[in-house]
Write a structure and sequence with these properties.
It holds the Pfam family BPD_transp_2. InterPro entries: ABC_transp_permease (IPR001851). Helices cover 74% and strands 2% of the residues. It has helices at residues 2-24, 26-41, 48-73, 81-98, 112-135, 141-160, 181-184, 192-210, 212-222, 224-229, 234-260, 271-281, 293-312, 317-353; strands at 100-101, 107-108, 186-187, 190-191.
Length: 354
């Protein structure tokens, strides 16, 4: 009887393990599928110029998705990143063009390095506010970040009365020239934004894998109560991930304004949706406790290639929204199926060992 049970369990366990492996590799499979599909059906998809352009688009989503990954791993969500992009772009544009006017009749102008530093600090500050709302005032992440979404977008609109800050060429006497380097500059043939993404992705992956804060992020998402009882400073961990998410959004705001050499208060609308989609597609669990930076980057490539490929094929923007929505739903469904299958395979292996 025991031998028969083991014989029946082994094939089922093996089949489950194969299916589980395929589910874990779903992002790679999806990336390979969309590349092959658009290489066949989209004109000039594989051209060098188009690949570089797509990489720049992917980089913008990847920045946001990295920050979103850390937030979702802790069991939270950050809906404010798109508005932070818009606000930080307006801050950078306003400082370049007008500086800061003081009530006493003087105007302070900052050099380019200081402008970028101030802009990134704004992203960190909004992330800090999100973290404090969630940890100290016990506001649900969805509500807290929804509120800061509206506040940041409103401030972006108020900063220019809804108008664009154009021609951000800067002034040599104030050392504000060269802003276009971040969006249009190249190093060894690759856009600067790609190099920034590589550096930040490597840093984020190192933090997630090899530092105490990285382990604490996963512990908080896996079981917040157990993490708190084990001595992990849960509140600080949550504040850290929201500040990192705000920083990533600020970087995107700088890059977009630099690329366009203009700042518009509506920049970044719905960017948070693409970031969530990339993170989930990359294997980040919406229930928290699981996710990787590498998977998120691949997920960002899938979303970016899908968007650009559909545009090249002339697909309506309305249908693009439908397709992206389906991708998110499918990714979540597969994630839930993977969790159930993982539990089943584990139980089978335990039964076999017993």
């Amino acid at each position: 009887m025991t031998a028969a049970t083991s014989s029946n369990t082994s094939p089922a366990s093996a089949n489950g393990s194969v299916l589980l492996t395929l589910m874990k590799l779903r992002t790679f499979i999806a990336l390979f599928a969309v590349i092959i599909f658009f290489a066949i059906f989209a004109p000039n998809f594989t051209s060098t110029a188009n690949m570089i352009l797509m990489s720049k688009h992917v980089a913008l989503n990847a920045f946001l998705a990295m920050g979103m990954t850390f937030v979702i791993i802790t069991g939270g969500i950050d809906l404010s990143v798109g508005s932070i992009v818009g606000l930080c772009g307006m801050v950078a544009g306003g400082l370049i063009l007008y500086g800061i006017e003081l009530p006493i009749g003087y105007t302070i102008y900052f050099n380019l390095f200081e402008i970028v530093f101030i802009t990134l600090s704004i992203g960190l500050l909004i992330g800090l506010i999100n973290g404090l709302l969630i940890t100290k005032l016990n506001v649900a992440p969805f509500i807290a970040t929804l509120g800061t979404l509206y506040i940041a977008r409103g401030l972006a609109l108020l900063s220019s009365d809804g108008q664009t800050f154009p021609n951000l060429v800067g002034r040599p006497e104030y050392a504000t020239t060269g802003f276009d380097f971040f969006g249009a500059g190249r190093i060894f043939g690759l856009p600067v934004s790609i190099w920034i993404l590589i550096v930040l992705a490597l840093l984020a992956a190192y933090v997630a894998r090899s530092t105490p804060i990285g382990r604490h992020i996963f512990a908080v998402g896996g079981n917040e109560r157990a993490a708190r009882m084990s001595g992990i400073r849960v509140d600080l961990v949550k504040i850290f991930v929201y500040m990192f998410s705000g920083l990533c959004a600020a970087i995107v705001g700088v890059i977009i304004s630099s690329e366009l050499m203009a700042s518009h208060p509506a920049t970044g609308e719905s960017f948070e949706l693409n970031a969530i989609a990339a993170a989930v597609l990359g294997g980040t669990s919406m229930s928290g406790g699981r996710g990787t930076i590498g998977g998120t980057i691949i997920g960002a490539f899938v979303i970016g290639i899908l968007s650009d490929g559909l545009v090249m094929m002339g697909v309506s923007s309305f249908w693009q929204m439908v397709i992206k929505g389906l991708v998110i739903i499918i990714a979540v469904v597969v994630d839930q199926a993977q969790r159930r299958l993982q539990q089943r395979v584990t139980l089978m292996q335990m039964a076999k060992a017993g």
